[in-house]
Every structure is written in structure tokens, then in C-alpha cells.
């Protein structure tokens, strides 16, 4: 079998699998649920974390968790699964910027979660998040 035919067969197979997963609903984002479900999901990966505050996004697909030690937890949905991250204070202070009056841009500089925008219900909720994180002023995000 020629190499070009093998590449075509493998490419077609991968494309077909991706299409079938998408059509079966595997790529639809599933909301995280209430605060207790978010905390439960975060504790799967970080069982010793003590959560002080939980702030969910307006669409329910992201949550920022302020932990008792002052660090930050992040839960982000990816299709029907979720991704969790734990950041120390000195790390997350440089990752977060203001997107607009209700949103924060989160730039983690990592391959699996390069940049997300977390939109909250209101400007007050965004202000509450910033206060809970101890971030009095944040730079304005330049990315769209």
C-alpha cells in the first residue's frame, strides 16, 4: 500500500470519528451546575483544597474558586468534560485582565488552556471577584 493512500485512509478515519463525536453531542458544552457540584468537581483533582468563595460565569461553563490559602482554582468545561487548574497568588495576579465591564480575560500561557474569557452576570459580580482575589486594579485586555 502506498504512503499517500495510507495517509488518506487515516485522515478520513480521524475525520469520521470527529464528525461522529460531534453529531452524537460529545462536543456540546455542559454547564458545571451549582456551587456544590463545582466544588465537588474541583476536589476530585485537588482533595485538600478549602474553598472560600465560588464565582460561576454567566453561562455556567467556568468557575473561579477563591481558596482559603488565597490561591485560585479554575474549573472550565471542555465539551462534556471539565478541566481544573490551581494557581498560586503570584501566578494568577499576572494572568487576569479586564475584558469589559462584566468579563475577565484569563491568559494562562499553557497549551491546554491558552486564553479564555469569563463573563459574569453583572459588573458587580466581576467587582466582587476582583475584590475576593485581592486584585484592586487590573490591566485592560488588548485581545479581542
- Can you identify the CATH class of the largest domain? Mainly Beta
Q: Return the string of H and E elements.
A: HHEEEEHEEEH
Give average pLDDT, whole number: 87
Per DSSP E runs of 2 or more residues, the count of β-strands stands at 7
Distance between the termini: 47 Å
Q: What is the general shape?
A: elongated
Cα-atom radius of gyration: 18 Å
Q: State the major sheet.
A: 4 strands, antiparallel
Characteristics:
144 residues, alpha+beta, PH-domain like, 2 domains, four-stranded antiparallel sheet, three-stranded antiparallel sheet, 4 helices, 7 strands, 27% strand
Give a structural overview.
The chain has 144 residues and is α+β, with helices and mostly antiparallel strands. The chain folds into 2 domains: 27 residues; 99 residues, PH-domain like (Roll), CATH 2.30.29. Helices cover 33% and strands 27% of the residues.
Helix/strand layout:
Elements: H1 3-23, H2 35-45, E1 51-56, E2 62-67, E3 72-78, E4 81-87, H3 89-92, E5 96-100, E6 103-106, E7 116-119, H4 123-133
Antiparallel strand pairs: 1-2, 2-3, 3-4, 5-6, 6-7
Short description:
This protein is an alpha+beta fold.
Amino acid at each position: 500500500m502506498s504512503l499517500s493512500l495510507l495517509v488518506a485512509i487515516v485522515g478520513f478515519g480521524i475525520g469520521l470519528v470527529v464528525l461522529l463525536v460531534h453529531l452524537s453531542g460529545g462536543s456540546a458544552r455542559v454547564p458545571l451546575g451549582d456551587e456544590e457540584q463545582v466544588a465537588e468537581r474541583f476536589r476530585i483533582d485537588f482533595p485538600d483544597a478549602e474553598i472560600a468563595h465560588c464565582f460561576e460565569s454567566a453561562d455556567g461553563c467556568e468557575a473561579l474558586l477563591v481558596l482559603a490559602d488565597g490561591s485560585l482554582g479554575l474549573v472550565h468545561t471542555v465539551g462534556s468534560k471539565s478541566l481544573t487548574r490551581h494557581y498560586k497568588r503570584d501566578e494568577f495576579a499576572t494572568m487576569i485582565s479586564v475584558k469589559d465591564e462584566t468579563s475577565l480575560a484569563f491568559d494562562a500561557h499553557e497549551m491546554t488552556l491558552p486564553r479564555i474569557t469569563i463573563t459574569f452576570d453583572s459588573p458587580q459580580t466581576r467587582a466582587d471577584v476582583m475584590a475576593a482575589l485581592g486584585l484592586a486594579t487590573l490591566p485592560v485586555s488588548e485581545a479581542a
